[in-house]
Automatic annotation (TrEMBL):
It comes from Stylosanthes scabra. PANTHER family: ENGB-TYPE G DOMAIN-CONTAINING PROTEIN, MSS1/TRME-RELATED GTP-BINDING PROTEIN. The lineage of its organism: Eukaryota, Viridiplantae, Streptophyta, Embryophyta, Tracheophyta. The keyword Cell division applies. InterPro entries: G_ENGB_dom, GTP-bd, GTP-bd_ribosome_bio_YsxC, P-loop_NTPase. Coiled coil: none annotated. Its cofactor is Mg(2+). It holds the Pfam family MMR_HSR1. This is EngB-type G domain-containing protein.
Length: 314
């Protein structure tokens, strides 16, 4: 057995429900981790004989310097995922540029078909077919539409614009006729009218709280710049409301010049995690990406696949 410093999972994760689908809640915000410690969660460990090496997914590349060598308590371990005791095997099963351990649920990850379905301004107007969905949200101009286009390998599925605040609705894109990518309005766009900003905030948060088919929110953070207060507050709100979240660090191809005080994306990623560490009992899953080089595209799809398949099973 291996002890992992993870929050206690609710019974809805540990026991399948016979009625409506449940969220995959694997990390929660703890406003006072010292006064209210949670139980440790035990994961059983599977060690295969030397003649039967642990199978590695073909899309799992070699480790990334400065980021990949992570201690066990900083890894995201999906439910029902055995943790190899061997360090080399464990490292090989961590998705490149992330803290996510690959599970046996990571199947059928590739996108063969993608189509825009509809735009909605109310949660109740969203598609009602019960398919699982992943929502992309982030500060305006963080690269949501570019990332969505990269995931589906189409340049213009989601319209991109140099003008922030272009996405103004809940936009559903159906993938492989079996699940949805959801493009949500960006936050923090100061030039938008106050009334419009309030509308975006209200219907986006209502969607998070009341959308029963939402598997996880993918919160996009610009890794080419230092952490913004509004991003930290958004991550905090998601955690406080127990909304499943994966952090997607965008623009990881950009390199700021040291002489101008800039930091490498890897440094900004580490800084952001340190800033939120005091609020979370366990580090949320995160992935480094670039829509220019397509870094992280396969890793995001694999992570979505393992979350989606677990959600469908339970």
């Amino acid at each position: 057995m291996v002890l992992l410093h993870l929050p206690k999972l609710p019974s809805s994760i540990l026991t399948p429900l016979s009625s409506s689908p449940t969220f995959i809640r694997t990390h929660f915000l703890n406003p006072n981790p010292i006064k209210t410690p949670r139980s440790l969660l035990l994961f059983s460990t599977l060690t295969l004989p030397a003649s039967e090496p642990t199978p590695i997914h073909p899309h799992t590349p070699e480790p990334t310097p400065d980021i990949q060598q992570l201690p066990l308590n900083k890894l995201f371990v999906p439910p029902e995922t055995p943790v190899p005791l061997d360090t080399h095997t464990l490292t090989a099963r961590v998705l490149k540029g992330s803290n996510i351990l690959l599970s046996n649920y990571a199947t059928d990850s590739q996108v063969a078909q993608a189509e825009f379905i509809k735009s909605s301004v109310r949660t109740e107007d969203c598609p009602s077919d019960g398919l699982p969905e992943f929502a992309l949200v982030g500060r305006s101009n963080v690269g949501k539409s570019s990332l969505l286009n990269s995931l589906v390998r189409r340049k213009k599925l989601a319209l991109t614009s140099k003008k922030p605040g272009k996405t103004q609705c809940i936009n559903h894109f159906r993938i492989n006729d079996s699940w949805y990518l959801v493009d949500l309005p960006g936050y923090g766009y100061a030039s938008a009218p106050q009334e419009l900003r309030m509308d975006w905030e209200n219907f986006t948060k209502d969607y998070f709280l009341n959308r029963s088919t939402l598997v996880s929110v993918f919160l996009l953070i610009d890794a080419s710049i230092p952490a913004k207060k509004i991003d930290l507050e958004y991550a905090s709100w998601l955690g406080q409301n127990q909304i499943p979240m994966t952090i997607i660090f965008t623009k990881c191809d950009k390199r700021k010049k040291k002489k101008n005080g800039g930091k490498r994306p890897e440094e900004n990623v580490n800084d952001f995690q340190e800033l939120i560490r005091g609020f979370f009992e366990t580090v949320p899953p995160w992935i480094m990406t670039s829509s220019v080089t397509n870094q992280g595209r396969d890793e995001i799809l694999l992570h979505m696949a393992q979350l989606r398949n677990y959600w469908l099973k339970h």
